[in-house]
Amino acid sequence: MRAFDELQLTGRLPSPPGVGMAIIKMTEGEDHEIGDVARVIRSDPALAGRVLKLCNIGSLAGVRPITSIDEGIQRLGVKALRGVALGFSLIAKYREGACENFDFTRFWSESLARAIAARLVAEQSEFPDPADAYACGLLSGIGRLALACVHPDRYARILTRPEARSSDGLLALEKETFEIDSRELTAALLRDWGIPEHMVIASTTRRRSEDGLERVTVELGRIVSIAAAIGRICIQGIDVDDTELGILEEARGEAAMDRVEFNALCDGVAGEWRDWGSLLELPTAELPTFASFAAPTSLSEDPDDLGLQGERPVRPLRILAADDERVSLRLLVRSLQSFGHEVIEAHDGEEALSLALEHLPDIVVSDFRMPKLGGLEFVRSLRRCEEGRQLYFLMLTGVDDENLVIESFEAGIDDYVLKPFNPRILKARVCAGERVVRMQQQLVADRRRVRLQMSELAVLNRRLEQASLTDHLTGLPNRRFALDKLQVYWAEASRHGDEVAAIMIDIDHFKSVNDRFGHDVGDEVLRRTAAVLDKGVRKDEFVSRLGGEEFLVICHRASLEDAELCAERLRRMVSENQISFGGFEGAITISLGVAATKPPVESYEALLRAADEAVYTAKRSGRDRVCSTRSGALV
Amino acid sequence: MSETTEDAVEILDPVVIAGLRDLGGDEFISDLVGILCEDLPRHLSDLRAAIGDKDHAAVMAIAHSQKSSCAQLGARLMSQLFRELEAAGRARDDAEPILTRIEAEWTRVRSALESLTG
């Protein structure tokens, strides 16, 4: 990473101000006292206020509001706190800079939208650490800010290039100019600030090959990329173009959410974005609902109505006419209008290029000789960037320029018309161009339809997957899902040094219920017991049916004592639940076995075995009770 | 070369004028004529200055674009003279005599154009 070292030597890379730096230093090792970290945060009242606010929203909020920083740190987790405090303190320090074409507050506003989106998507997909997702979203663009700080002039020049409009184009330009692109720079900075590696990878790697990455990294990366698409729409507001909407639609597919769910989530992001924007003094905008964004005229619900040609009136073409000669231009524009097209006028090559990129016309008709930027250079510039590659380009050229026609074709024109032009010839050539354009439009519509179907498929897949992960009788998650979840919690707890607890539950005398009242009644008893358990578990407690009359509760970040309290609560609730069905009258009881361990002391299989043994002990000692075990030794 | 006698050629090509009228009627023609009458005198004085400065490149460039504008309006002799002017610029010849002929032709073209639209 030589390029990064060189950037570092400039001394202009962004660095967090005092408080942020102190927090990073303090939380570097494992042996930090929460009280010390809290004291540092409290020394900056604005930062403290923002951290507290973050603790008290969404699923991060607990039963009662958090009012002290110490509690806040515990809730967010020190790693997430490090990222969040870093982001907030950077926002305060880098609100403006020398790079002319880089809008610093807009940059932060987009980062904020992305952070909020990441948190909400994380919550929606039950990712265990929404605060980590928030931090990733906030910091995943920091490399761009860094380039704007280190090379304000050169970066400002890059940003005016047409290629910079697409994110791939910008990355390529950055790499070419600085030997490091903003994505790589983001990764280097985050590592330098001690952000955990899985968050670094998730924030900076696109099109991840999932091989060899931990599940939590892949999941977090998916969340950040969905959030990035939502953040783009927030910052672009009503000016958003079809490309971004296409990316948003793909993100919806990634999120495997149906349109209504996803739009509601995005509207939630927009709402919180405005709240936070005013808190952080960043510009935000009032947005229309995402439902109105996501349904542009050509993207309706009916797949047969996707801007295809047919009986529906065909939209007129949009044509850019460029000529420096006023008489010729006037005649050209009038002719094109008489063919029924919508015409944009440009009076020199430079204006033509910028109008072409702004309006993305279907066809360009341009004079060959123009001041500032000639026709040849105009078409070359267009063909260099993604959007410009698709335009149909018709060059006007004088009779004695014919030698240049070949060169023009090499530069990328599609056809040419000799000047002085005869309007009828021009019309015939434009018609030929229109055929090509219509075919292209059809192709785009087809592709869009495929993409739409893909995202519908993704939703369907998710439903299928859900179905395969659900126990049909009780509606609770099944064994497969439970074991998956346990692995996620397990990995998570390993990283944080937390404990994981498991409660194995078995219904007492279930066989005799079946024998005496029949299987219908047995099934109903299972259903009602499942409902009580489901109601009885709290946040971070995950209940599932393993099979038969056996249930499992996994307690995330819970000590043995926490899990025992949970088990006792469930035992009491079940025993107090009166069931009256098909001749069965009364309550049933359950036996519960609790085990806890601190990974990776033992495997999670060992944890489940220990819980199983504890159930056996509970059964032997009279049923309707809780027994627990730690590290194999019965308590 | 090109000893075209002014009288032998119609000032404005009637076919071209009919085409323009088809496209936008008299209103459009008077619109175009208005633009030409506004721009051409300026180009002519720029040309005179360029010839004085022996700026052959500028002579070529202006003559090239006016050649095609005049042709688009059917002013064939004007267009032909601009073509000769462009060639003179390219050959770095003295273009002053051609420009003088153009200026004379312009007064004829101008009145013909103005009589078109009344």
Report what the structure shows.
The complex is a heterodimer of chains A (635) and B (118). By secondary structure, chain A is α/β, with parallel strands linked by helices. In chain A, 58% of the residues lie in helices and 11% in strands. Chain A is built from 27 helices and 13 strands. A six-stranded mixed beta sheet of chain A has the order 7-8-6-11-12-13, sandwiched between helices. Chain A has a five-stranded parallel beta sheet with strand order 2-1-3-4-5, sandwiched between helices. A two-stranded antiparallel ribbon of chain A has the order 9-10. In chain A, helix 20 links the parallel strand 3 (363-367) and strand 4. Chain B has 118 residues and is an all-alpha fold. In chain B, helix 1 (14-52) packs antiparallel against helix 2, helix 1 (14-52) packs antiparallel against helix 4 and helix 3 (76-90) packs antiparallel against helix 4. The interface between A and B is medium-sized, with 17 and 21 residues.
